[in-house]
Amino acid sequence: MIDVILDSLMDSVKLLPFLFVTYLAMEYLESRTGEKTKHFIRRAGHWGPLWGGILGIVPQCGFSAAASSLYAGRVITLGTLFAVFLSTSDEMLPIMISERTALPVLLKVLGLKVLIAMVAGFAVDAVYRAYRWRGRARRGGGAGAAGVSSGNESGREGTGAQAGVHSHSHADGHSHAAAEHSHADIHGHAGAHSHAHTHSHTHAAAPAMSEDEEEYQIGRLCEHEHCHCEDGSIVKSALKHTVNIFLFILLITFLLNAAFHFIGEENMMHWFGDRAVYGEAVASLLGLIPNCASSVLITQLYLNGIFGASQLIAGLLVNAGVGLLVLFRVNPDWKENVGITVLLYVLGVLGGLAVRALGIAF
Questions:
Q1: Average pLDDT over all residues of the chain
Q2: Burial zone of 216 (CB within 10 Å; 0-12 exposed, 13-18 middle, 19+ buried)
Q3: Is 85 exposed, middle or buried (0-12, 13-18, 19+ CB in 10 A)?
Q4: Is the dihedral of CA 68, 117, 286, 292 positive or negative?
Q5: CA torsion angle for 226, 227, 232, 235 (degrees, to 10)?
Q6: Residue 348 has pLDDT above 50, yes or no
């Protein structure tokens, strides 16, 4: 056990300078591009899944959280949200860079995630549009079809988009909500047309979250998860992030070394790496944990040879950082949030199985 502890400590300490330099570079990159990226994705419209998949791979701690806030306000489409979630890799990239992983491997991992994220995002939007049009046809194309049902409408489509937000607010005596339709242009000027229904119910529309509220939610959850993504100084933020991830790496390395010692590396590889479906299902389940530790664990399992390419992709596809936490916090429709989480898990498993079926290895 002493040897296990010493080996774990030495393996982790070696990464410290590389981790700090990597996080310092990434904090600088985020400080330069973070706000521009969020503003760009707000205006992506039908092309949201394309840009969500591409921009999601850029290491930005709060991007998936911002996407959740934008979706809750119906500013981006559901497919765009999925594209961002599937493309984001949380701590994978800095750890692989610190471990001096070969560049071709990094490019394959990032390329696969972007490709799967874009395809899945466009597919989700296409299926939802077909479902929405079929619903309109059943209702005879009535005016009520223009609103958003169950919180799934895209808020901004094309250049001048109409956002219809349907929210349910239950106040003191059983109160429900009717839809308020607001028309917002691409520059953010909004005019609201309210249709009041006077029952014994109160009706209100949930407006898109303001940028200040969005930043507050992101910062609060990042602080809660100890990711330190919203500090003022990039050096201070990089240092905190380095120490935080170093501790995760140290703990996970110790647990893996102990497992190798007591269980055996071959047994662990047989349980996870050699079993189709099961391996991908376990990896995606780990990836759903909304904490920095999950991406550290998945990456370390791959670097230690326990996970293969298919398990790595399956786990990283669903690893959206604090994005899911923000979604549950800001989107009031919990049934929809659960549905998004389940579909994200299914897409992660399917993505991993596709990599296995195609024989892709790295």
A1: 75
A2: middle
A3: buried
A4: negative
A5: 110
A6: yes
